[in-house]
User: What shape does this take?
Amino acid sequence: MERTYIKDIKKNTGQKILLSGFVQTLRKQGGIAFLILRDVTGTVQTVIIKSNTDAFATIQDLSLESVVTLVGESKENSQAPNGIEVLVETVEVLSKAEPELPIPVDEKGESETNLDTRLDWRYLDLRKERNALIFKVWTLMDQVFVDTMTDKGFIQIHSPKLMNTASESGAEVFEVNYFDRKAYLSQSPQFYKQMAMAAGFEKVFEIGPVFRADPSFTSRHATEFTGYDLEVSFIKDHHEVMDIEESIIVAITSKVNAVYGKEIKAVFNREVPIPTSPFPRITFAEVKEILKGKGIKSEKPADLTGDEEKGISQYVLEKYGHEFVFITDYPIEGRPFYHMRYADKPDTTMSFDLLWNGLEVTTGAQREHRYDILKNQATEKGLTDATIGDYLNFFRYGCPPHGGLGAGPSRFIMKMLGIDNIREATYLYRGVKRLTP
Amino acid sequence: MERTYIKDIKKNTGQKILLSGFVQTLRKQGGIAFLILRDVTGTVQTVIIKSNTDAFATIQDLSLESVVTLVGESKENSQAPNGIEVLVETVEVLSKAEPELPIPVDEKGESETNLDTRLDWRYLDLRKERNALIFKVWTLMDQVFVDTMTDKGFIQIHSPKLMNTASESGAEVFEVNYFDRKAYLSQSPQFYKQMAMAAGFEKVFEIGPVFRADPSFTSRHATEFTGYDLEVSFIKDHHEVMDIEESIIVAITSKVNAVYGKEIKAVFNREVPIPTSPFPRITFAEVKEILKGKGIKSEKPADLTGDEEKGISQYVLEKYGHEFVFITDYPIEGRPFYHMRYADKPDTTMSFDLLWNGLEVTTGAQREHRYDILKNQATEKGLTDATIGDYLNFFRYGCPPHGGLGAGPSRFIMKMLGIDNIREATYLYRGVKRLTP
Assistant: This one.
């Protein structure tokens, strides 16, 4: 007998169906038992009556969250949740749960359980509709990203995560014992996606893990997370890269809204915004001026603090009704050596960050592709041939002008759904103190 | 002026166009110069005449593989390659290559250069049409995989690559210095995709890097490579997993054939096969019998050698005209502890490998989801709670029956295009002696 998903029961009213899933609740009232069954598509009330002796006996000592297969008849019942219930004929227990659950597996229990304990029992935590929905949305977001990029003619690369030298600055990099030597975990595909430009691939993207030995414990950092990266040749300037990102974000939010908008509204009480293009773009210098006018003190001359990012996003939301803002043209002190600088403003980079409701979700720039200038800029930042010689080589035998960006899809998810902590927007969070499960 | 891709020039005959790309060849004959320009879509002959003094002066000392932008008029010319050439008006040099290339950047030079030197200069090696095509095909394969899985309702996970303990056996695992302790690089998403089954995700897939501290130097191994993984709940047996893989491979080969079939034929002299379903399925025991009959000696009682894999593939190709064969039901000695065993044949696992023209491209199985049995099987293989306790926990509070597979897309590419060495089917190969560039 073919399995029916719970979401499809209504189409099969009055028929005998086979369901499989987890026992969410089990309530006995004299000669009748109500079992709420949950699969990946939803929940349904099922009914086992005492006269069905085998089935009734089976569920007597059935623990919550056990996995069962039920066969029964689906019936309309206006008293049941969603107006439908299943009168059970047979019950087969596929996997019996231990009787005492370490954390509650229901939405109500969510707020009562400490996040760290929830992460210890992540697989139980992910059984909640709310948490599974996060990864359904993420799956759709990935697909839209892959389809958008591939359809635009981008080549997908899978760049190595094991490197001979620390990728960018040498700071916050994990060291690996690699046979008789050391290797380092990639902090971003930056160098290798630029290599693809030197290879003439012209447009590339990558979805992959990035590693940061960042000893911070904030709600928006992790030591390992998924990155979306892209790089494009023959651009005029960094604004072209921003144009591409706008089209990606519009595609993602539109599709997520169309497919999961209702569920997201019901579960997260959040309307997924489909932003209008172009997004507001404000230079770093202007941002500092605006914040000064609002009484927010500048603490870092070449960067923005979290408070400043929130402040400027608040300003943009009020002034333009827009959740997104590109901050452009950062001072060179706050940017890596490979960001291109304006010919007529050598202390300013052709760079940008994208903020979404106060959170930085992307960093991008036009890159310096001219070998001599790039080498000078590297030297100026204290980098030598010994560490970045292989990278500098990419620019010796012809390299098109190019630019690109690195974005954090877990932060997209946070902002799209209104989740405060990156630990919840990550399948399995990794931090200074967390390498398990 | 908008840029025209070289593949689109024919649509713009007689018009003034702007082209950008690499200088592939440059031949001067008295008052006329022929420059073959290459972009990611192809090559075209361009002509610079002496009376165009600025342009002619610019190209005098232009080194091969420099990057230029040309403006000129496209014209039909039956003598030119593809019947079209561009009469150049202006030349702008965007990036000048050093004059002596370390390796030749043409197909002819391919066979003359040692592979190791080519990998040292991988970005120049990738400029060849043949090598760029590999990654265009790979991009399409990735997209088909993502679309097929997502459209079937699979959830994409991004499981962590940093783990607290060595993932499966403790052998061939890379150790990472993780703040004040050790972490290990994931050898496969095995445990975490099974966790998704315990989380009730039911169907998941992942594309991501896997790491193997494998000290071998063969043409089919790497220390880091991309994996395709999937896992499915509520299966009847491992044959259901094979059915899914067949549908994926048919989808990939069909799409690759439709989009790149002609190019692959021209460049690799290979017809991409679209295999018929079902693929032949032969048990391990039968394979040993067949090989015995062919005089191929069994060297490993619980596994197949490379020669045996080639032998059985040859047999299947001759007998069924099929490039693929599933070998099923391996003895328990050759399989990990988490493979389910037949109730009535406790020394045989419900497992399979997929061979494509003699190369193992996938390993899969139904998994043991019953906690007590799983724990016994782990103990039998010498594994303890200390190393796999977190994993065993996944099975304590209800876990559906499930199975899945791990496949190597770089090996798919090798077999699809007829490439002998995994180093060429990988964007940047990583091996015992290679961490650069």
